[in-house]
Design a protein that fits this description.
heterotrimer, A mainly alpha, B mainly alpha, C mainly alpha, A: mainly alpha, Four Helix Bundle (Hemerythrin (Met), subunit A), 6 helices, extended, B: mainly alpha, membrane (chain A)
């Protein structure tokens, strides 16, 4: 059991537990904070795969921007300070049972795949090649079309959100 | 001779030799070495804050034409120590209804976000924590974690003023992150790597000479990111009841201020690393300890400039701050990126001095054009004193009670 | 390279431990005399009225959203910036096009009044 496997197990358990607590928390704000913890866990998992750039981007975009957006949305739509209702519904055992059965079936089917029991592959010595990644993003034989379409997508998101928020502002004030 | 050239790395190698000699095995020796190294660096940073607080209070005093603290110790050097002792013994009043985890995590997160920035900066040619490949993006991401600390403080205090203060502080911080990130693209473009060690190594002329517009935007954005004057609306004592830290007392309150002073120093040395050449200077390559000295001299000069800003400028209003960010700094940053990219590419194959002068010229043109545009857009006309018609009370327009018998 | 991230992780834990230890020492050294007046929520010296909630403006949400769009744009530009020195001119033009599209979005937001603080 190498150190890397121990770190992976701990981080994976923390991430899964936080994911569970996102849906099982009593207060909405606690759900948002558990979500931040599970996103941090995913970032650490990226780090163990030696994808440093993606770990940092996960923290920068997901935790630094999207989580703050989610928290602002929470505060905008609910009286977030006195928000205290039970986190679970009455018949929660039935969906839980179905989820466990589904997981067991999936695991069973995947176990029939040959490489399920394979050992961890050693990653090459220097797997991160940011310059190559950047060159591929603007290479005409690479990913330049998705790159430009991504900017148009961001523009569409910006315009749509401003339009909706402007309507809301007119309704409010 | 090798001790005098580079004392810190000499000591580090000696300690590593000791650890290897114990004979645990490579994994454990490295891990314990990392823990000790991290401890020394983080504790060193926190003890350094004591000196920074003294420096700032003396300087602010001098700017305001008075002595700073000068009673305790020579030149008041023991004053921050006395303040620390006092604040350790103040009662930690916890108001009712706070969310225990959020309330207590917030000051810890604020300070640790700033401390983590010390792990990746190169203090000299050989002395740095780690050389990760995404250094500059790491600094920006960790700043985001600091903002989360403010949000937890505001929400966890169970106080509506703290919440409103925290929301305004976060709106300011996330807004100023945009020109910060965009202007940090320019050194990455010019040096070809995101790692801070590589950016310092590649600064043959310092990047402030090559891209002064980007340096200007980066500096203003980092002053705003630290929440210092003139951008300190979110936490000033006279605004919104001291903002998000109103319910904190004792050392928890002190931790927020330790974090803020440390963040100001950290912002100074990040600016020095990215634009002012870090540890570079004459003979810094051969004698690393000279590099450390140059680094600290440059950082203290920039820190002096930050304190000068605090002592001279009045506070911005929040709508002035947002206008400055979204209408001036962000478009300017985008234009600077495009201009630097195009000019550098067009001149890529010519001589170095030609390329650098072209970049410098383009940057200066952009700064002057922006200044002209901003000047035109700002309203500077005011009505003359005494020119407005003010209503004057006269018996005709004063309200008379019906039935009181007074005739108008 | 994994060692680098291990150091960063250890440094993060140490940097969270140090302030927490300092606060714990202060909690041990400080007097503890809670009473109901000291522990009440601060409202400029008056008694609190009603539950603690704050009216949140839509403007905060709009700023957070514009920040998100520009953050993602900057993140997409970073790998290009790392590879910049080896790229030919047309690759630079492609990135300039990317930036121009988003500059157009910022100008739209400006004209629509989404950047006013209200």
């Amino acid at each position: 059991m190498s150190g890397l496997q121990v770190v992976f197990l701990i981080v994976a358990i923390v991430t899964l537990f936080s994911g569970l607590m996102v849906v099982a928390s009593r207060k909405m704000m606690h759900s948002a904070l558990w979500l931040i913890l599970s996103l941090l866990g995913v970032a650490i998992l990226f780090g163990t795969l030696q994808a440093g750039f993606f770990a940092i981007v996960q923290i920068l975009v997901y935790i630094g921007a999207i989580s703050i957006l989610i928290i602002f949305t929470l505060m905008l739509t609910r009286r977030v300070m006195d928000d205290d209702h039970p986190g679970v519904i009455k018949g929660w055992w039935l969906p839980a049972l179905m989820a466990v059965i589904l997981f067991g079936l999936l695991a069973g089917f995947m176990a029939t795949w040959d490489n399920f029991q394979a050992m961890l592959n050693e990653l090459p010595a220097n797997p991160e090649n940011l310059a190559g990644f950047g060159a591929a993003l603007v290479d005409p034989a690479g990913y330049v079309i998705p790159f430009e379409v991504a900017s148009v997508l961001l523009l569409a998101a910006l315009v749509g959100a401003i339009y909706i928020a402007a309507e809301r502002k007119e309704k409010a004030g | 001779m090798s001790f005098w050239r580079d004392p810190i790395v000499f000591l580090i190698n000696w300690a590593k030799g000791l650890l290897d000699g114990i004979g645990w095995g490579p994994g454990w020796a490295t891990t314990v070495g990392f823990v000790i190294g991290a401890f020394v660096l983080a504790a060193g940073a926190m003890f350094f804050v004591v000196f920074l607080i003294w420096y700032e209070r003396k300087l602010i005093g001098r700017f305001q034409d008075r002595f700073g603290p000068n009673r305790l110790g020579p030149f008041g050097l023991f004053q921050p120590l006395a303040d620390m002792l006092k604040i350790f013994t103040k009662e930690l009043i916890t108001p009712v209804g706070v969310d225990w985890v959020a309330y207590n995590l917030a000051p810890v997160l604020s300070v640790s976000a700033v401390l983590m920035m010390w792990a990746v900066t190169p203090f000299s040619k050989t002395f740095f924590g780690v050389n990760i490949s995404v250094g500059i993006l790491f600094l920006i991401a960790i700043g985001g974690l600091g903002e989360l600390g403010i949000l937890l403080a505001g929400w966890g205090s169970n106080n509506k003023y703290a919440l409103v203060g925290a929301l305004r502080a976060i709106a300011q911080l996330i807004s100023y992150e945009v020109p910060f990130v965009l202007s940090a693209l320019v050194p990455v473009m010019l040096s070809g790597s995101m790692s801070l060690v590589d950016i310092v190594e590649a600064q043959q002329p310092w990047y402030i000479v090559v891209a002064p517009a980007a340096a200007f935007i980066f500096f203003i954005a980092s002053v705003a990111e630290t929440g210092r004057a003139p951008f300190d609306l979110a936490e000033a004592e006279s605004e919104i009841v001291a903002g998000y830290n109103v319910e904190y007392s004792g050392l928890k309150f002190g931790m927020f201020f330790v974090g803020e002073f440390l963040h100001a120093f950290t912002a100074s040395f990040i600016f020095v690393t990215v634009f002012l050449g870090g540890w570079r200077g004459p003979f810094a390559d051969e004698i690393p300890v000279l590099g450390l000295a140059y680094f600290f001299i440059k950082t203290f000069i920039v820190y002096f400039a930050l304190i000068l800003f605090r002592g001279t400028n009045p506070r911005f209003r929040i709508d002035q701050m947002m206008d400055l960010n979204w209408k001036v700094l962000t478009p300017l940053a985008l234009v600077v990126i495009m201009a630097v990219a195009l000019v550098n590419s067009l001149f890529a194959s010519s001589a170095d001095w030609l390329r650098i002068s072209a970049l410098l010229a383009v940057n200066l043109v952009i700064v002057f054009a922006a200044e002209r545009l901003v000047r035109r857009g700002v309203k500077t006309t005011r009505p003359e004193v005494g020119s407005r018609q003010r209503p004057v009370a006269s018996p005709d327009n004063v309200f008379i009670q019906p039935g009181s018998g007074v005739k108008g | 390279m994994l060692n680098d991230w291990l150091y960063v992780g250890i440094f993060a834990l140490v940097s969270m431990f140090l302030p927490a230890a300092a606060i714990s020492i202060a909690a041990l050294l400080s007097p503890k005399k809670p009473n109901s007046v000291k522990n009440a929520t601060y409202e400029c010296g008056m008694e609190t009225v009603g539950p603690a909630w704050a009216q949140m403006k839509v403007q905060y949400y709009v700023f957070a959203l514009i920040f998100l769009v520009f953050d993602v744009e900057a993140v997409l530009l970073f790998p290009w910036a790392v590879a910049y020195n080896q790229l030919p001119l047309y690759a630079v033009i492609e990135a300039v096009l990317f930036i121009l599209i988003l500059l157009g979005g910022l100008l739209y937001a400006w004209r629509k009044g989404a950047l006013e603080w209200l």
